[in-house]
């Protein structure tokens, strides 16, 4: 039974879902990195929010870990490249808290417009400061939206409902989508110059870090109010404090900080500054949504192989998974065959599908081919880290889907270019489930790729098979299956034998010296 650790505060329904789906679950929150490191080795899955930092050290200790699920959107607390290199799937729940976070941004916009926190504090202090809090209306004002994805687009729709104009800067926002959203697409400088309120909704990346830098803050309209419910690090906090002090920025509300938990930000105590402790996702609705989603997604992956919302692996729905499973087994074997036989350090690989295979999601098939193929470089390769390792090695991966009808109802072909030219192997599924090799380097040969095998290329001459059988028999090696193919009578032939035990090097050397043998290789599937 797979075992999952929930290491951050999460709605209790998550633990119940794991139990209902047959996954053992421990809920242990508030552990130090050292404590987490000591216990993580026993878990197949890890469910987190933002407190748990999944670093290289934690991943090195996570010897059984297969999947990490973030109950939320941002995954900056997970070292995704390292998780990928270790073959660990990383998932998030990209929509569960979007509405809640958008509402928090709108709440902060109103709090800024009417200085609600300070007015509340002074009223409760008995000051009745009726003349000290002159606010502004949002109606008719321009909202500058930096980042127009899930949350940004919800913020835009709410702002339009409040009769604001919305100007959006997002390099990935198409003009059509901007029209659909009812916003005006603009470059960053235009947005900075025009916005009365600016709200940030991008991830923190090399391009967005300090997007509101000192220089860009200086380009904003005097009296602008700024809201950040996305990620700390998007705004230069010291420059923001200076802009608030000078009055250029009339107000700022941050839910997120460059360093969290933020205990001593330069902004604390600044007039017209409002802060919340990363509460964007904190509503009961959002927390139930993300907890349920993460538990479903992790359970699906651990129990059925279904992949949803993974950041480092193609999606594979729980419905698709059983259909694709035999294809992935076939693809992995074909990839492994090519990987074991190709002598050169290859720089490209093509995966072609036709017939029934062409109707399927090709990404998991490609992942499986690469996982089999990359095993020539490392035995810790799987579907998750294979594409990553392939990229690291500069392997060019091509996927081709053919409409044509071939000899087989379904076919997967893997081709590599070697110094001897293109080399390709192809396989099909018998009865929609049994993986069979059907072609090798242009020669029709039908074989089940399983266990220890011997591959021989030879001249098609009488008595050859007998000589191979004798050599193996004398070495005490039992033959399981015998699979033959030839280019033409008396021409080049291929022999694929399954044998019960690994073939020792001295036996292979003997076989290589048999008359008619061009090359021979021991294979393992
Ligand atoms: N405060 C919270 O509790 C809380 C809750 C949920 C999400 N978040 C954060 O909110 C952010 C947005 O989440 P989302 O679900 O809308 O993400 P999303 O991926 O749907 O949208 C992000 C948008 O940013 C855009 N973008 C990327 N680079 C950009 C750049 N250089 N300039 C301008 N735009 C750029 C993308 O094109 C995309 O449209 C994330 O950082 C997420 O972690 C915070
Ligand atoms: O889990 C949280 O409270 C914060 C979540 C938020 O930052 C996110 O990116 O989803």
Describe this structure in words.
By secondary structure, the protein is an alpha/beta fold. It folds into four domains: 3-96 and 285-304, Rossmann fold (3-Layer(aba) Sandwich); 98-275, NAD(P)-binding Rossmann-like Domain (Rossmann fold), CATH 3.40.50.720; 319-448, 60s Ribosomal Protein L30, Chain: A (2-Layer Sandwich), CATH 3.30.1330.90; 450-525, ACT domain (Alpha-Beta Plaits, 2-Layer Sandwich), CATH 3.30.70.260. 34% of the residues lie in helices and 24% in strands. It is built from 17 helices and 22 strands. The structure holds nicotinamide-adenine-dinucleotide and (2R)-2-hydroxypentanedioic acid. Nicotinamide-adenine-dinucleotide is lined by residues 72-74, 94, 97-98, 101, 146-152, 169-172, 201-203, 205, 207-208, 229-231, 255-256, 278, 280-281. Residues 453-525 form the ACT domain.
List low-confidence stretches. Answer: none
Strand content: 15-25%
Decide which structural class fits the backbone. Answer: alpha/beta
Number of domains: 4
Remind me, CATH topology of the largest domain? Answer: Rossmann fold
Number of helices: 17
Q: How many beta-strand elements?
A: 22
Highest-level CATH class of the largest domain: Alpha Beta
CATH architecture annotation of the largest domain: 3-Layer(aba) Sandwich
- Could you estimate the helical fraction of the residues in percent? 25-40%
- Output mean pLDDT: 95
CATH superfamily of the largest domain: NAD(P)-binding Rossmann-like Domain
Sequence of strands across the biggest β-sheet: 8-7-6-9-10-11-12
Task: Say which molecules are bound, naming each kind only once.
Answer: nicotinamide-adenine-dinucleotide, (2R)-2-hydroxypentanedioic acid
Radius of gyration: 30 Å
Largest sheet, in brief, is:
7 strands, parallel
End-to-end C-alpha gap: 26 Å
Shape: elongated
Domain ACT: 453-525
GO molecular function: NAD binding; phosphoglycerate dehydrogenase activity
Enzyme class: oxidoreductase
Keywords: Amino-acid biosynthesis, NAD, Oxidoreductase, Serine biosynthesis
